Amino acid sequence: MIINIIVFSLVGVGVLFALIRLIAGPTAFDRVVGLDTLNIIITATVVLLALVLKNELYLDIAIVYAVLSFLETILFARFLEGRR
C-alpha cells in the first residue's frame, strides 16, 4: 500500500515537470517534447492502474492511448517541419 503511494506521487512529480515544459517551453519543439513526455507518463500510469486494480482492460486502453499519442507526435512533428 505504501509503495503505491510513493510510486504514484513520483509519477505526479513527473507530470508536473512535463507540464512545466509543455507550458513554458521556449520553442514549439520543446512543447512537443513536453506533450510526448506527458503522454508516456499517462500511458505508464494506466498500466500501473491495471497492475494495482488487477484489471486487464486497462492494458488495452493503454495500448490504444499509446498508439494515438504516437500518431499525435508524428502529426505535430510534420506540422512543425513544414512550418520552417
Query: How big a fraction of the residues is strand?
Result: under 5%
Rg from C-alpha positions? 15 Å
* SS-derived structural category: mainly alpha
Describe the global form: flat
Unreliable spans are: none
Give the number of domains: 1
For the record, give the distance between the C-alpha atoms at the N and C termini, rounded to a whole number. Answer: 50 Å
Order of secondary-structure elements: HHH
| Number of DSSP helical runs | 3
Proportion in helices: over 70%
Major beta sheet summary: none
Descriptive report:
With 84 residues, the chain is mainly α. The protein has one domain. The protein has 3 helices and no strands. It starts with a helix and ends with a helix. The mean pLDDT is 92.
In short:
By secondary structure, this protein is mostly helical. It contains three helices and no strands.
Question: How are the SSEs placed, and which strands pair?
Answer:
Blueprint: H1 2-24, H2 28-53, H3 57-82
Helix pairs in contact: 1-2, 2-3
Name some characteristics of this structure.
84 residues; mainly alpha; 3 helices; 89% helix; flat
